Amino acid sequence: MKYIECYRDPELVHGLLKSVSFLAERLAGNVTIMEICGTHTHAMGRWGLRRLVPRNVRLISGPGCPVCVTSAADLDTALYLAGLPGVIFTTFGDMLRVPGTGGRCLQDLRAEGADVRVVASPLDAVQIARDNPGREVIFLGIGFETTAPAVAAAIITAKKKDVRNLSVFSIHKTIPQAIKALLDDPSLSIDGFLCPGHVSVITGVAAYDVIPQVRRAAVITGFEPVDIVEGILMLLKQILSGRFEVAVQYERTVKREGNLKARMLMNEVFVPCDAEWRGLGMIGGSGLRIKDVYRDYDALERFSVPPLESVEPPGCSCGEVLKGIVTPKECKLFGKFCTPANPVGPCMVSSEGTCAAFYRYGMNRE
Ligand code: SF4
Fold first, then answer.
1. CA dist., res. 268 & res. 332, Å (int)
2. What is the pLDDT of residues 214-249, one digit of tens each?
3. How far lies 239's CA from each of 210, 211, 220, in Å?
4. Choice from 312, 349, 355 to test ligand 1 binding pocket (greatest atom count within 8 A of CB)
5. Whose alpha carbon is nearest atom 7 of ligand 1?
6. How far apart, in whole angstroms, are the C-alpha atoms of residue 40 and residue 57?
7. What distance in Å separates the CA atoms of residue 318 and residue 28, rounded to the nearest whole number?
8. CA distance linking residue 353 with residue 336, whole number of Å
9. In a mutational test of the pocket of ligand 1, which residue from 61, 311, 327, 344 has the highest number of ligand atoms less than 8 Å from its CB?
C-alpha cells in the first residue's frame, strides 16, 4: 500500500496538472486523447481526473474493455453453446449479465436450468472437466493479450493431461489492430493514445509502432492518478514538439520487449484471425483462433452452431461510445432505462465499461 500511495500523492498530481495546463496553453487548439483501456477509464472517474485537465485537452474513452467490444453475434453464439443439453459452460463472472439478442444473458440461462459456472481461471475449467468426465465442458475464452496466454496454458495443460471433454470458444482480441482501425477511421481524429499498461506488459512497446508512424502520440501508462496525469503530460510534449514515439510512463512494470514467454504460449495455441468488434466492425487479424493442432479443443469445431440472427440492443449507443464518438451521457437510455442494475448494453454491465464508469462516478465532463 505504501508503494501505491506515492502514485496517489495529491501534491504530485497537482504539480503534474500545472505542467499539463502550462503545455495546454501552448497548443494551437484542442487536442483529443483516447484512453484505450477500461481500467484507465474507471481510474479517471474514481480520481475525478477528467474535470481537472484543461478544457482544450479532450479525453475520450476507447474500445479497451473486452466484454464491451464482444459482438452481438459472438454473445449469441456463447448463449447457444451454454444452452446445449448436458454442457457445463464456464466463464469469467463479468460475462454473466451481458445481454445478447433479445436481452437474454448467461444468468437468465442459468436461472432456466443451464449449468453455467463462474471460474476465476481457465485452469478451473480444466479441473471441472476432469471432475466431470461424462460431460462436455466449454470455457468462454475472452480478453485481450493479458488473458489469452492463460487460456493458451489451460489448453496446453488439457492436452498434456489428456482431458478430452474440454473445449474453448475463443473470442479473444488483440489491441494493436484495433488501434490501427481507429487511426484509419476518417470519422475520428485522435491526437494521442494512453496505451494500456497491462496489455503492454505482454505485447511490449513495438506493438504500438503504428501510432507514431502516422504522427500521433503514444504513451504506455499505469493506472494510478500520478501515472495517468504524467501520461497526459508526456503526450502533450510529443504533440507540441512534433516528435512522435511510443513512450513508456509505466516503466516499473512494462519491459520494452514485453513478456516473451506469455507470447510464446499464445503463439503455440492461437493464430490471428479476423474478428468483429462491437462498434468497430470486422478488423483483420484482430482475433485469436485456436490452431489446427489444438482443434480438438475448439468449441466451434466440436459443436455445430446454426446461423443466428443477431441484433444490437435497440437504442443502445455502445458502438459509438466505444469509438469515443459520443459519451455515455449522450445515449438516450443512460441512467433512465439503462443502469448497472438493469443494463441494456455491455458498456453498462462490465466492471470496465465506459457507461458503468460514467454512472458510478457521475462523470459530467466529456
Ligand atoms: Fe448502451 Fe446503456 Fe451505454 Fe446507452 S448507456 S450506450 S444503452 S450501455
1. 45
2. 999 999 999 999 999 999 999 999 999 999 999 999
3. 16, 12, 15
4. 355
5. 316
6. 16
7. 32
8. 17
9. 344
Sign of CA dihedral 205, 211, 213, 215: negative
DSSP for 54-107 reads -TTEEEEEEEE-HHHHB-HHHHHHHHHHHTSTTPEEEE-GGGTT---GGG--HH
Beta pairing class for 57-64 and 88-91:
unpaired
The H-or-E segment that residue 221 falls in is: strand 217-221
C-beta 279 within 6 A of ligand 1? no
DSSP state for residue 31 in the 8-state scheme: E
- pLDDT surpasses 90 at 4: no
- Output phi, psi for 173, to 5 deg: -135, 160
pLDDT digits (tens, 9 = 90+) for 71-125: 999 999 999 999 999 999 999 999 999 999 999 999 999 999 999 999 999 999 9
In angstroms, rounded to a whole number, what is the distance separating the alpha carbons of residues 322 and 300?
27
Distance from Cα 320 to the centre of ligand 1, integer Å = 10
Cβ of 348 below 6 Å from ligand 1: yes
195 pLDDT more than 60: yes
Largest Cα separation within the chain, whole Å, is 68
Please give the distance, rounded to the nearest whole angstrom, from the Cα atom of residue 160 to the centre of ligand 1.
43
Distance 213 CA to ligand 1 centre (A): 34
Q: Which atom of ligand 1 is nearest to the CA of 315?
A: 7
Q: How far apart are CA 260 and CA 254, in angstroms?
A: 12
For the beta carbon of residue 300, count every other beta carbon within 10 angstroms. Answer: 16
- Centre of ligand 1 to C-alpha 348, Å, is 6
Mean pLDDT computed over every residue of the chain: 95
Pairing of β 137-141 and β 166-170: parallel
Q: Alpha helices of the chain — where are they, by DSSP H?
A: 2-5, 10-24, 38-47, 66-69, 72-82, 106-111, 122-131, 148-160, 175-184, 197-203, 210-213, 225-241, 260-269, 299-302, 318-322, 346-349, 354-361
Ligand 1 near 68 CB (within 6 A):
no
CA 83/CA 112 separation, integer angstroms: 9
